[in-house]
Amino acid sequence: MRRVAILIALALTSSAACADEADRKAVRETIARQIAALSRDDPAAAYAEAAPQIRSLFPSPETFLAMVEKGYAPIRRPRNYRFETSEETGADEIAQALSLQDDTGIDWLALYTLQRQPDGQWRITGCRLKKAPGEKV
Fold it and tell me: By C-alpha distance, which of 129, 4, 137 is closest to 69?
């Protein structure tokens, strides 16, 4: 997992200024709320953590959940996950890395992007997911 953390850190290298700890904490809490909602089969709560541009692509919590199940199954019910590095990627935008293990024991890397909304809340704008180095495809 140490190699995974190093790879994530390299992927997140940015010349942008660092977000403060309160922002980083709020970002982690947003992601954790969404993962918890997915795990307890609460599509409305998971959908609420998505940014408006994501919600416009998936017009209901049910269509959002179907997308997660089809393309992001490892985050649906992870055995465990750990927040890794985060970097500010633009004004009011943060990328947050996670290492996680899916319900079958396969390790994954997830790179979430979040944006601060006009109301000050952080919402998820995207997630890239790939198997951790060393995992078979």
Answer: 129
